[in-house]
């Protein structure tokens, strides 16, 4: 655990406590943090408890609905999300849809997304 001191927007001194953990699903290092008003032994112990609880929650939450999603479903969900959030024009969406159609002529869309690699071409 490490601590960084900073000033909030009201110019009050605050302390951000950090802890790192390894995400078991991605095998990458992640960090969690909490903010407390003091940096004493008592608040450090409280920070450790809160950070440990946050890490426990983060490690246990895994969207099970996406475990067995196919590559085609994943691309379709991404494209729907992209269309709704990108702010790009309809003509650009049509180009992307064309590329997606070409992609699925080369790659089997029924392959599980987590199993896709460079060898999945027909």
UniProtKB/TrEMBL annotation:
<protein>
    <recommendedName>
        <fullName>Site-specific integrase</fullName>
    </recommendedName>
</protein>
């Amino acid at each position: 655990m490490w601590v960084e001191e900073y000033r909030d927007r009201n110019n009050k001194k605050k302390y951000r406590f950090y802890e790192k953990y390894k995400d078991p699903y991605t095998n990458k290092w992640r960090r969690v943090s909490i903010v407390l008003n003091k940096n004493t032994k008592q608040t450090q112990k409280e920070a450790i408890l809160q950070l440990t609880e946050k890490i426990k929650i983060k490690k246990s939450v895994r969207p099970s609905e996406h475990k067995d999603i196919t590559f085609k479903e994943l691309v379709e969900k991404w494209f729907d999300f992209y269309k709704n959030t990108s702010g790009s024009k309809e003509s650009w969406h049509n180009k992307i849809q064309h590329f997606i159609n070409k992609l699925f002529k080369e790659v089997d869309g029924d392959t599980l997304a987590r199993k896709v690699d460079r060898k999945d071409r027909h």
